[in-house]
Design brief:
By secondary structure, this protein is an alpha/beta fold. The protein has 13 helices and 14 strands.
């Protein structure tokens, strides 16, 4: 049975605001480097004032949004369930998401009063990204924002791990998973960030249940989740949680388990500028591949090409012509 969408994604809606900062800045303001930290609006505003530099990128974002936009840029069909407020940034987010070719549940007439979430992305000279996030109204994301029809009419559901920080977000993930499983929609999950695995390990056990169809993790997340010190042991343990999985390894490429064998995906070396969005891009490109007739190996190659391109530029999103160029490289 054919389905309308390749992927229906569920996640936080955040306007990403990206800056370059120094390591000294992170130390001075006691910001933990390399992870996502939740902050209140006052703290976030103070940091933006202290950075005192022009914004170089402002886009609709959040982890799953970046992934489903990537899928769309490669030619896939995506839907995004999320929540923004009836304010300037909320309307910006809704327009940017629609302009990126992603169907969504953001009807301007039905937006609630409140404050749209923002993610302050601070990139240091070593290309490491550090995020301070004020969730705003997306903290209230719940089962009400799910589009049952879109989830049922998708090949894959894609769940963003960041949602586990709230009980209502976790319940939305569980409800979406139940809907998907009843409708023959495969379930994919990304851990999103090592801090999520470290502090919400039990919540992920609840979400995964007996298993998910596809899991995305980086090397650190895989080790934290499985409690193993080396990757060879961690990947064996992950088989208990997912039928298939992807472990991204930064400059060392990625490792894919296709349900039968392990596939090593080579990296595409590039001078690193900004690691923000690399994992999101890998997931989006990989999901595009496996929902559009590509093998796991070919999808991994496409994802590796695309994520290396992201690391070599400032910002988490490709230009449309760049996505088409990468596809042409895959099938010259």
């Amino acid at each position: 049975m054919s389905k309308k969408y390749d992927v229906a994604a569920v996640g936080n809606a955040l306007v990403d605001i990206e800056f370059s900062v120094s390591d000294q800045f992170l130390e001075e303001f006691q910001i933990e480097k390399g992870i996502m930290t939740l902050v209140d609006e006052e703290r976030q505003t103070k940091l933006m004032q202290e950075i005192n530099t022009k914004t170089t990128k402002m886009q609709c974002g959040g982890s799953a949004a970046n992934s489903v936009i990537a899928l769309s840029q490669f030619g896939g069909s995506g839907y995004y369930c999320c929540k923004v407020a009836d304010d300037e940034l909320g309307r910006f987010f809704a327009k940017d998401l629609s302009d990126a070719g992603v169907d969504n549940n953001l009807n301007p007439i039905q937006l609630e009063k409140g404050i749209t979430g923002k993610c302050l992305v601070m990139v240091t000279q070593d290309a490491e990204r550090t995020m301070n996030t004020f969730l705003g109204i997306t903290q209230d994301f719940s089962t009400r924002e799910l589009n049952d029809f879109a989830i049922k009419d998708a090949k894959y559901l894609y769940l963003e791990g960041y949602l586990v920080t709230s009980e209502n977000g976790k319940e939305a993930m569980l409800q979406a998973k139940r809907l998907a499983e009843r409708s023959g929609t495969k379930v994919s999950l990304t851990f999103s960030d090592p801090a999520m695995v470290k502090y919400f390990r039990g919540a992920f056990d609840d979400i995964i249940g007996p298993s998910v169809d596809l899991l995305f993790a980086n090397e650190e997340e895989a080790k934290l989740f499985t409690g193993k010190d080396n990757l060879l042991e961690a990947r064996e343990e992950l088989k208990k949680a997912a039928h298939h999985f992807v472990i991204t390894q930064g400059k060392n490429g990625a490792m894919i388990f296709d349900g039968d064998t392990y596939i090593d995906i080579e990296p595409y070396p590039i001078k690193a500028v900004d690691s923000n969005g690399a994992g999101d891009m890998f997931a989006g490109a990989f999901l595009y591949g496996i929902t559009n007739g590509h093998s796991y190996a070919s999808s991994g190659k496409l994802a590796s090409m695309a994520s290396s391109q992201i690391v070599g530029q400032f910002g988490p999103r490709l230009e449309w012509h760049e996505a088409k160029k990468i596809l042409a490289r895959l099938h010259p």
